[in-house]
Every structure is written in structure tokens, then in C-alpha cells.
């Protein structure tokens, strides 16, 4: 049973009461708030040996722990507010290392107006575990979901993909400013952050929306580090495959009506000249993913990163 099958099994009969707008299955849950606001709820964890190594700079570990949740708030078109931190500590933990974790986390929190308001500590045996519970806000009825993609939509992705193994996963910038601008200026039909790879996360949008998607191979924005890695290490994935499947890029992947594509690209260039934006495909009828290359259109069978998947 892989990660997504397990989630489906565990959440299929969860109790939800009045006030739940969006339950399990999107980047954040959405519940009723006060007045014209709704509350976003997100929790995420980083684990030593899975998301970072023992020798990783502690400030970068703390930064990544919070940044992952901030990226999910961005994917909903929201603004972050309050965080709770749970630490699972290994035997013989180093207090100095933990101070570094909190320094990196707190620096990013201040930059995005997040208040760290408490948490919990517990023993975790042989490795460090950091869980973040984060709240956010969004205007009532304006949360951007995975499930809104429409046939004919253009598919866009910010930044470049495939660079996580070169350290991008520790230093990425959550796209909160970009998301806020998108939500204010355009009718974004669906959005997700790219945490499982372009192939995996576009498939999440397609399944949630009941549609198919077609990628244009030459339009996929592959990072220079993925190209260098493939050139220098024979055992590495081809650059396109890295961009499609490596995950932890934490860029915005979204769909809008195709007629707005030129206005979007022009406006984005004015607002965010240092952040690339690429139109990588379109939403089509049917289901599944396809990719168009120089030989024609074929089924895209590769999946994104999935915890617990068999190799």
C-alpha cells in the first residue's frame, strides 16, 4: 500500500461536522472562520534520514520544516498565520543543534508574518522528527482547490524543476507572494504545490478534477542542476525524468482559462522578473496524463515521488 492508498483508506470514514468546507484530500483543509474569512489548516513533518541528514545545517532543517507548510498555504491562495511545533528528539540530542533548527524556522516565520505560538516535545528514539501545524486565512469561497481544472485550461508552473537533489529542497522560497498576486488578478481554476514531481502533482489535479492533462515535453522547465547531475553522474536520471518525478521542487502548478495565458505571462514578468513561469500543457477530456514530443503524443506512465511505493 503506497502513501496515497493509505491516506484514502484512513480518511474514507473520518467524522466531519458542520463548518468543514474542505476536508482531507487537498493541500490544506478549509473550515469556517469569522466574517468573510475561512481558516486553512495544514500539518507536515520532516524526518531525519528521509527529508534531511544528520549532518545537514540545522538552520536549513528548521527552515525547510516550516517552508513546506507555507508552500501548501500558497497552493490554496491563502496567507499564513500561526504555527505549532512538535519535536521528536533522538536519544542524546544536541541542544545547540535544536537552537539552530529554531533559528532557521523563526527567521522564515518572521519573513512571512507567522507567529510561532507553542508546541510539544517527545522522545523519538534514534532520529529527529519535526512536525509543523500551521493555520492560514483565505477570503470566504476563494480557496483554490485541486479539483477545479476545466477542459481547455492552460497548465502553468513557476520556477524550474528537478533540482531538489542539488539542495533546492532545503533553500526553496515558498511562493506566497506569487500566489497572492495570482489569486487577486486571475481566476485560477486549480492549484497545487509541486512536492511529488510534475507528473505526480499534475496527476493529482487531473484526478481531483475528473479530467486528463497533456504536457509539452519541450516546455517543461528543467533546472540547470538536473542537467549537470545527468551529465556528471552516469547513474542519474535523465533531466526530463528528474523534473517529472523527483519532487520537492515546491513550485506552483496551476490552471487558468487559456485565453488569459498571454496576460498572465506579461503580468508575471512585470511582477516577478526573477521567477520563471512556463506554460507546460493543457487540460483535456478523459483521464490520465499524456506528453507530446517530437514523435507525437504518448501516455505518460511515470509517477511522481510516493512514500511507501515499491521500487
Strand and helix map with partners:
Layout: H1 3-11, E1 20-22, E2 29-32, E3 37-47, H2 58-75, E4 79-89, H3 95-111, E5 115-123, E6 129-139, E7 153-158, H4 168-171, H5 176-185, E8 190-193, H6 198-209, E9 212-216, H7 224-232, H8 239-245, E10 252-257, H9 261-271, E11 277-284, E12 289-293, E13 296-299
Parallel strand pairs: 4-5, 9-12
Antiparallel strand pairs: 1-2, 2-3, 3-6, 4-6, 7-10, 7-11, 8-10, 9-11, 12-13
Short structural description:
With 311 residues, this protein is α+β, with helices and mostly antiparallel strands. It has helices at residues 3-11, 58-75, 95-111, 168-171, 176-185, 198-209, 224-232, 239-245, 261-271, and strands spanning 20-22, 29-32, 37-47, 79-89, 115-123, 129-139, 153-158, 190-193, 212-216, 252-257, 277-284, 289-293, 296-299.
What's the SSE pattern? HEEEHEHEEEHHEHEHHEHEEE
Cα(first) to Cα(last) distance is: 13 Å
Helical segment tally? 9
Number of strands: 13
Question: What integer value in Å does the Rg equal?
Answer: 19 Å
Biggest beta sheet summary = 7 strands, mixed
Question: Level of helix content?
Answer: 25-40%
Beta percentage is: 25-35%
Give the strand order of the largest sheet, numbering strands 1, 2, ... along the chain: 8-10-7-11-9-12-13
Mean pLDDT: 93
Global geometry: globular
Q: What structural class do you assign from the helix and strand content?
A: alpha+beta
